[in-house]
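debug: dumping io for the single-chain case to check the tokenizer round-trip. Nothing else runs in this session.
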Amino acid sequence: MGPADVDNAAASVLIVEDEHAHAEAMQEGLQRQGHECAVVHDGAAGIARLQAEHFDIIVTDLVLGSEEDGLAVLGAARKRSPDTKVILVTAHSSVETCRRALQDGAFDYVEKPLDLDELRTIVDRAAELTAQKRTIRELREQIDDKYGFENIIGNSPAMVKVLEKVRRVAPAGLPVLILGESGTGKELVAQAIHRNSRRSDQRFVTINCAGLSESLLEDELFGHVKGAYTGATTDRRGRFEHADGGTMFLDEVGDMSLSMQAQLLRVLENGEVVRVGSNEPIRVDVRVISATNSDLAERVEKNEFREDLYFRIKGATIELPALRERAEDVPLLVDHFIKQANEKHGRDVAGIDADARRVLASYPWPGNIRQLRNVVENMVVLASGKMLTVDDLPGEIHRRPGGQPHQARQLAGMSLDEAEKELIRSTLKMVDGNREQAAKMLGIGERTLYRKIKEYDLRR
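debug: decoded output
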């Protein structure tokens, strides 16, 4: 689906309106835009209809003259189909109720008397977002089915882009350099490359270059012969020999000493290793995948990393986004880690409530996925109830040192308008401009957010 398809996306719409004339006017107006519309005239019928079939969008009057009102329809939609966009239609007197409903998952609201142009604009925007998410979800499902990337969690555009590059790079046989902050999942991506390569039936061998001294790293990578040093009582194969025919993953390759870099370069150029204490080269056939959280180009400039080795290991480069740059994936990751922690520790936590989920989604996660996994695991182990709540969050997540919520120190001393502008600006940056996600994090409606963006001149 290209950009033109998304801009003109047709959606399936359920209209729930007890006033027949209003229902017909909405149906006619939306059908002219190319949307497929079904109409029911009370809340119970609306709930029954959405239980029976899927709708991309629901437009429902808030007051339906029966026990099942628009909020009941919203609640049923959130349980049955969380991706469905719910738009409320309300009189001015109930606007505050609709604003609160936005925090409970409503997409937007329209005030009476109904402006059909405004309704069409909001429905078109909801349809466009639905089409984008559907395209990403379908692409992710295709990739998972064919390439087995299920362990790499995330449906954000940033992660789908990463997986598409992994899919292209994996069978090529080139050396790969994976860049990303600590905790972003570089080893998982390396494993995915190996599993989808021609070497998938051979070994995947990993070593952390930052965790060993130079002498130990040399011995681990290249092995030794008997008598090479005190205690070397037998010959020992290094990891390159162990990985022969398969893949070697060098984590934190940027921490290698210059002398070790020279030895690694020889392996990449000649396909030969020399054990410690020996002069005899041993042929190996190994694909090397390297990873680092440092700027290797900058280290080359400072003569801290060999330029020839740098160009050797970066046959293809994959950059992993930090978790704060794909905040829309946090809910998926949280659910995944709750399930993992339940299985690991014999717990039965059912899920996490909306307030706690919102705090987790808005936190900047300096330790990335690794930090999130540890936080969720601790929450599950220590939880006293079936649902995780804000009370289960560790102090460093819920509040920063000194008892201040995140960003409080940064915002202290500003006027209210300046603080609001900075909060909106930083939230938009965190979610890469995704206004729907930003509005949810800020606890306001998208329409309010659009007005604030215009007011503070924050348009990108």
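debug: round-trip ok. The two ends are 24 Å apart (CA to CA).
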